[in-house]
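Journal club side-thread
Mid-discussion, someone asked how the predicted structure for our own chain would compare to the paper's figures. Pasting it here so we can look after the session.
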Amino acid sequence: MESLKLTPRYKNSPHFRAYWEEGNGKDLIEWSGAEVSFKKFEEKTHLYHKVDVLGDEVVTDFYQGKTYREANQAIEQLIRYGVPKDAELPQSVKELFEFSECVPEWLDEDLLKSGAEACMKTGLDALLSLRDYSLMGGYDYAYLNKPLVFTGALKKGALKRLAETLEFWVNVTRHDAMQIHAKGYEFAIKTRLIHSYARLKLKEHYQDWDQQTMGEPINWWDMTATSNGFSLVLLHGLKKLGNSFTEEEELGMFHLWKYISYLLGVPEECLPDNKKAAVEDFYLWTSIQPPADEDSVYLAQSLIQESLENPILRYNYQRKLLNYVHISGSKFLLDKEVFERLQLPEVWNAGLIPNTIKLGNTIAEKVLSRKQLIARGDKAQMNILNQYKAITNS
């Protein structure tokens, strides 16, 4: 892989410059105090061709000769109850659980708690920012989405993809969720193996994957960008919606996603500890990503359409209102150029809902305690998750 020379090929492109000189990127730099440049670009490029080798070995060794469901159920038992001493398992599986069950010295339980509570206290705002900013904005990075296209995951439909993302996010952001054998820990290990399974299937069936241009499928650098989507971008969206955070809560958010990503197979030295480091790395990563293409637009349109077809809501007017809320959210949170590239529809008075949310947050933070905000937000997020689970499971 050393022979593959990677350059910041889009650093002078209109989409890159507009984002970092005029749009949300400029705001991220000012908010974080980041010092962006390409001095450290070559230090990061190897990540584009590095993947979770241990996860791939587990899938190769353990999933062979079983249906995916059988293998997954067996793995679930090991995640929830640990590896029996006398178990006859492939060496790769033993190594996976030796790694996962060994708590790293750098892990700070207080910061984990602060990060989880920062996610919970923002309630439905977090789900709005996650969907209409992090997820929708991520579709603008054409290469990042290619594994979805190549593995046929697009055929699941937006409802299924959204439900899976929501279930993962909610479960890893609760109190004590990342304790060994807990629910969030389980989701992290299972997602790690899903990534490996998808990568191996992609490489088996699609010989024309352009590794030099797009890197390895689900590579470490793309994974750090995804982690930034769940921490940096999510936080930025929440701040735009009028939520405030203490320094400890911000650091906690990054610490939480550092540990989650670590359990997903990304080395800790590749992951940021704070918003400054996150923005500086995100700046470099975006310089190798082209803007939205046809697949990006398809993904964006599917996500918009999901709210119009959402079976959770009984009446058509409810679905239209939900659609209005999410389009308004994307209009408010995304850069104008990104909104247009994804061909998102215009709506009347798009600032109405976001500005109403901002006002509501200003009032709520004055009249409710942090403990009350966390309890209220946790309940609201769990309620939405349970509604999606009821629909997708049926």
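Post-session note: The mean pLDDT is 94.
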